[in-house]
Amino acid sequence: MKKQIKNLFHFAELDTKIILGLMSGTSLDGLDIALCKISGNGINTTCELLQFETIPYSNELKNELKTIFCKEEVSLEKVCVLNNFIGKHHAQLINQCLQKWNIKNEEVDLVASHGQTIYHAPKHKHPNSCYDNATLQIGDADQIAVNTGIITISDFRQKHIAAGGEGAPLAVYGDYFLLSSEDENRILLNIGGISNFTFLPKNLNFAEVICTDIGPGNTLMDAYIQQHFEGLQFDENAAIALQGKVNDDLLNALMVHDFFQQNFPKSTGQEIFNLNFIEDALAKTKGISEEDVLATLSLFTAKTIANAIQQNIFEQDFTIYTSGGGIHNPLLMLNLQNELPNIKIESTATLGINPNAKEAILFAVLANECISGDSEFYTSNHKNIPIITMGKISLPN
Predict the structure, then answer these.
(1) Considering the entire predicted model, what is its pTM?
(2) Cα 12 to chain center, whole Å?
(3) For residue 257, what are the contacts with CB-CB under 8 A and spacing of at least 6?
(4) Domains, the chain, ranges and CATH?
(5) pLDDT, tens digit, 9 for 90 and up, residues 293-317
């Protein structure tokens, strides 16, 4: 133990670290592994992506996770055993990648593990109970630390909740550290299973930063595809949606959900935006083809994103930089541009950040802050965003 504490202190004092960021999102499609070279901390942070790979989950593992994912009633035994299994499985995937990249485990200073979300329960989802914000990610970090031999930082969302946040979104910290600019106002828009954005003002005043979940990203379209088109996980290149037409009745039924009337910032997940959400809206309409449903879901997703931006951002001049799986959906991106016709929309690749790796990179940044964060940033103030370092530390032995 003493040796590991000394190692931790040594890494904390390093100006440059090699950190492996892990991200597995609500799409349940696999594990993103980003090997990052991170220097500095706080607003002086820089990051170079050395290697990146997404390793898909097997269909068997996806199906196992779906038995406990976003469900109010599940097998506690299944939660228990999958917590250990996911941690050990992620360790195995790390070892495979490092071997493939010809990198020794001891050359990596830290692993930053987001874990696999299985339930997100902000207060607004259960407003009449005595319970506060809560969220749960599985994938035991001790399994990762022991089976890779690398100090692992995990469970980032719990400190956010303890400090008064909802546990999401966490992108704001890394976005602010890595991507703020004095030359332009920026919106960092991530379209994963759930969509979220961070607004970064060019005056660099953190008190003016806005970060919030928006609503569905890919989750509704993917869930509908998986239910109605056997063997497909998503609508590749929007090929099916492009065959359909938007149904206004369905679109209106989708738009009236109470979540969209709640104040920003807020967080959400597939606990709300799921197949039941679609079926409830379809029950208010008649005779819609599957292609039309998908075309409508695409426009609905774009409208919720555009509405959130328009309701929160009053500057006349800003650029949107996108990341996440949704950027590969041409119809969704076309709909978004049509909803925001005067706004420039680019990929984060323009800023030197791989849009597929961005979330994994941001958790590597959070791990760096966990052990090295000591900048003046942590004396700043923001009424909606906790100013804290996050993460729990697991030692290999």
Answers:
(1) 0.95
(2) 26
(3) 272, 277
(4) 2-167+357-394 (3.30.420.40), 171-351 (3.30.420.40)
(5) 999 999 999 999 999 999 999 877 9
